[in-house]
């Protein structure tokens, strides 16, 4: 991306969600600027990726696997040197608390290392022949083509790299558009990209969706679309591809993961998992618990303990020790959350915690809403923020119906102690969601576990091993020997 250094066109300003008081009004801090590419510049990046791939004949897709791995190892080494810069930007750009920002960086390094190890193992396995029914076969995995990788603002490094790295290491060439918020933190890594990969193999683009990724999709030259974000974003872009049947999509999308708390749940553990599950990084995780169904016989106890735990969460700036609730990076987010809270309150829910829902500039105090009913927006709509609806139930069927009729199907959590009941629910839900968590919050990790979802929540599966498959395609060489 050397050419971007000499970019003469429009620039876009990047503001921090962290505000400073300037007179009466809190104002966001200006962090920097990024190029606002036009369609022509985006197409140049595409041409670079297309030529480097060269219909599968380029040096990168044809490079021996172990050699390609060395490039990724070099990148990992150079990336390590930028650890502090990236962590600082994660705090400033998206308001991620220091501890979580450091975890995001280290998890990404581990992910790259594990990917390298898994591919080395896969390469060893691929040297074996398969013998079946008189046929001698050898299966090799080849790249898919030109990949467009786009990540979300909440994990702008980690989730993006869970597609970017497998795409590269499997021999695809890549166009990478960083998340809208969490864009500057890629900057310290640009030199590492340049020093680790041949020209054209990875191309970073910035700018408005329509003029950049929209144009790339319309060109029909994108073979693989790896996108973590909203359903709308993914489907709008997919529709632009002139031959959607030739586009492989790996998508991580919206979710509304429920927790179901049974009458026999261990309350202390349940509350602690539900608080972490609903409010880690302000609830801005696709895997966050976004609605809590609690058996009526335990709901008062649950609400009381949950509220105490929420009221104890420290609110502040990302660099403050132990902080839990921090500024929200998406403009207009506090208004949206306020609307969800107002709607629920107008229809009979109350805010149970002290100062819940109060907000100033980009800080929003978590709002615990109870009792929530199906008539309220927050029952079905994804909040992706610190608003927690609690629904009492008398009959477990209400929670089962919720899962079955939901448009989403990423994960759910079950809290209870009766193995038979848990087992029956696991059987009921196995074809409804990608993961069922027993007595623990929803989450993606460990990264060796398949991460996917049903219905509108995902397409394809990610994990260290699954991603290697997702970003490549098997070719069989077969010979009859009888
Ligand atoms: O935002 C969606 C992420 O995949 C959540 O990942 O469960 O590790 O926080 P996590």
From TrEMBL:
Residues 31-474 form the Aldehyde dehydrogenase domain. Keywords: Oxidoreductase. CDD domains: ALDH_F11_NP-GAPDH. InterPro entries: Ald_DH/histidinol_DH, Ald_DH_C, Ald_DH_CS_CYS, Ald_DH_N, Aldehyde_DH_dom, Aldehyde_DH_Superfamily. Belongs to the aldehyde dehydrogenase family. This is NADP-dependent glyceraldehyde-3-phosphate dehydrogenase.
